[in-house]
Specification:
Number of strands: 20
Distance between the termini: 83 Å
Largest sheet: 6 strands, mixed
Protein name: Starch-binding protein
Organism: Candidatus Scatavimonas merdigallinarum
Strand order of the largest sheet: 14-15-11-19-20-17
Keywords: Signal
Strand content: 35-45%
Oligomer: single chain
CATH class of the largest domain: Mainly Beta
Pfam families: CBM26
InterPro entries: CBM26, Ig-like_fold
Order of helices and strands: HEEEEEEEEEEEEEEEEEEEE
Helix content: 10-25%
Shape: elongated
């Protein structure tokens, strides 16, 4: 028979082995991290959908049943956002939850934003880009527009105008709009209710901060009162 001393040594060794296993399991659980995620955006300015959904898939795996996950609009922007597990999917469709959608789009590693620009075979087509290309402008109406919400309507040769445009995001007394850099023309307005700036060219902006002076400069052909603007020191 084994001596008592030997049996004690064996028991201690077994306990140590169990503790080491438990410790290793605990460390693995503590150091395991959730899968990396990536934000994706859809520029809804051209499509102007009331809601936007994201349907992503690879093989038989999807992020959600059709029409996908609802996206969230970024304040003061035509961009709608969703978050997906990074590298989990190869294809994506943006849609309005009903019967209008983009083509089947291959997800590209170097881009995070799809901008719809035209129809192709009855579906929305466009191009990939990055959200960090977009530019934010601040607009200060003071109280000349009776504290009405402010909108920004923008366009160029490749961007169709949307009226009254995107509702701007208010912070303190400023209203903010984030738009693509190729948006050459912009009109700030009070929601299409008769007060607006003239058509402004972003290429001539001397600051990212624009304000009304309080002076009017006539009316446009539709009877809207046109307000003069000035540039303030740039905001960070």
């Amino acid at each position: 028979m084994k001596s008592l001393k030997t049996r004690i040594k064996i028991a201690v060794a077994m306990c140590m082995a169990v503790l080491l296993c438990l410790s290793a399991t605990g460390m693995a659980a503590a150091t395991s991290e959730p899968p990396a995620e990536k934000s994706y955006y859809f520029d809804n300015y051209y499509t102007n959908w009331d809601t936007v959904y994201c349907y992503a898939w690879v093989g038989g795996e999807q992020n959600a049943a059709w029409p996908g996950e609802p996206m969230t609009q970024e304040s003061g922007s035509a961009l709608w956002k969703t978050t997906l597990e990074e590298d989990a999917y190869e294809w994506i469709i943006f849609n309005n939850g009903q019967n209008v959608q983009t083509l089947d789009l291959m997800i590209l590693d170097d881009y995070d934003t799809f901008s719809g620009s035209h129809m192709s075979s009855g579906k929305v087509n466009g191009y990939w880009r990055n959200a960090n290309e977009y530019i934010t402008y601040a607009f200060l109406p003071y109280d000349y527009w009776d504290n009405a919400d402010c909108y920004a309507s923008y366009w160029n040769n490749s961007i169709q105008q949307n009226w009254p445009g995107i509702k701007m995001n208010k912070s303190d007394n400023y209203y903010f709009i984030t738009l693509p850099p190729e948006a050459q023309n912009i009109i700030f307005n009070n929601g299409g209710n008769g007060k607006q700036t003239t058509t402004l060219q972003t290429s001539s902006f001397t600051s990212n901060s624009i304000a009304l002076t309080g002076s009017t400069i006539g009316q446009d052909p539709y009877g809207n009162t046109l307000y003069e603007i000035t540039f303030l020191p740039p905001l960070p």
